[in-house]
């Protein structure tokens, strides 16, 4: 996986030696440690500045606010996958942590291979289930393509086609060239139901039909029965033309 697609991870751990070991294991596995933090305040600041894709959080942190309180605050900023690091197996702590919907738990002392496996599991769990109500969808998502999870900016998804339990992402030329340099441009096929993909899209997306969702930012032309996004043409069912125009900033004029 090239560096531009590597998962960017925030490590929150107050033990310096453990944090160093985690960073070394992540880099060896091909991940990008965007930053490390030792306490609640630093982690919040880093979260806003670096916009990591995933956070590894030690449940027990020095200070009044622990990793569970931090996790809640981080996901209020933007919903991202969380993995808790813990040496504590108390049921009360576990139940508190579970309420923040972590994608995985990793018990200390960890093994490097286990760390990588838990990250894969966390991504799989995160993109399988619905984002909780009130949480803001991420700007970037990771999708399975060419034997790895690759970063895709949702703003660069032009449209999504659905068929059975599969969803096909049609990306801009620039975005596809970034995730698959040298490859012939084609749709990115996901073995994920349409409704699961829609949970991770913001208000710029409009469901043009039962099996097609379009990104309004890429609409170039709207006719009575079809809409054009670059070279792509999407047929509009009866009644969708007016509804679509209401979602667009149209300057009305006489015909």
From TrEMBL:
| InterPro entries xrefs | CheY-like_superfamily, LytTR_DNA-bd_dom, Sig_transdc_resp-reg_receiver, WalR-like
CDD domains, per the entry: REC_DC-like
**Annotated GO biological process:** regulation of DNA-templated transcription
**Residue ranges constituting the Response regulatory domain according to the UniProt record:** 8-123
Q: Tell me the protein's name.
A: Response regulatory domain-containing protein
Q: What SUPFAM superfamilies does this protein map onto?
A: CheY-like
UniProt keywords (A-Z) are: DNA-binding, Phosphoprotein, Transcription, Transcription regulation, Two-component regulatory system
Q: Which residues form a coiled coil?
A: none
Q: Which positions does the record annotate as the modified residue 4-aspartylphosphate?
A: 58
Looking up Pfam families in the UniProt record yields: Response_reg
One example of the protein's molecular function in GO is: transcription cis-regulatory region binding
Can you cite an annotated GO cellular component? Answer: cytosol
């Amino acid at each position: 996986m090239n560096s531009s697609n590597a998962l960017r991870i925030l490590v929150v751990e107050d033990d310096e030696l453990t944090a160093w070991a985690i960073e070394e294991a992540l880099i060896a596995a091909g991940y990008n440690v965007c930053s490390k933090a030792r306490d609640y305040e630093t982690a919040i600041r880093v979260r806003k500045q670096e916009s990591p894709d995933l956070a590894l959080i030690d449940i027990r942190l020095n200070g009044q606010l622990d990793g569970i309180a931090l996790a809640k605050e981080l996901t209020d900023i933007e919903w991202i996958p969380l993995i808790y690091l813990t040496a504590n197996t108390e049921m009360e702590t576990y139940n508190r942590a579970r309420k923040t919907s972590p994608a995985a738990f990793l018990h200390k002392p960890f093994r490097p291979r286990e760390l990588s496996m838990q990250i894969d599991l966390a991504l799989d769990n995160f993109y399988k289930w619905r984002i909780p109500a009130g949480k803001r969808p991420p700007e970037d998502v990771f999708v399975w393509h060419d034997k790895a999870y690759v970063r895709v900016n949702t703003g660069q998804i032009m449209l999504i086609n659905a068929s059975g339990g599969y969803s096909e992402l049609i990306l801009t030329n620039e975005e596809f060239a970034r995730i698959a340099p040298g490859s012939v441009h084609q749709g990115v096929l996901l073995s994920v139901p349409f409704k699961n993909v829609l949970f991770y899209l913001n208000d710029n997306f409009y469901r043009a039909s039962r099996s097609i969702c379009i990104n309004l930012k890429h609409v170039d032309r709207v006719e009575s029965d079809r809409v054009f996004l670059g070279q792509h043409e999407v047929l509009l069912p009866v009644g969708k033309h007016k509804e679509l125009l209401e979602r667009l900033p149209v300057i009305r004029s006489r015909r």
